[in-house]
Design brief:
By secondary structure, the chain is an all-alpha fold. It has one domain. 93% of the residues lie in helices and 0% in strands. Helix 1 packs antiparallel against helix 2.
Amino acid sequence: MSFNYMTITKEQVQKFHRERINHKKEQNLLLSKIQKESDLDTKKTLLKEYIQINQKALQEYQEIINQS
């Protein structure tokens, strides 16, 4: 029984890790766009997207912690 639990946990951590990498890639692209953007309204929109990605990653991290 504990072996199956450990396998599920390992799979969840691997999934979280892959998602975290994808979130970081998205954030890097957004950061690049933010730095190049001159329009303040567009910059604010991009910054909001950047923060939303960060909050989503934090929420996923909290879910992993709560499951263990």
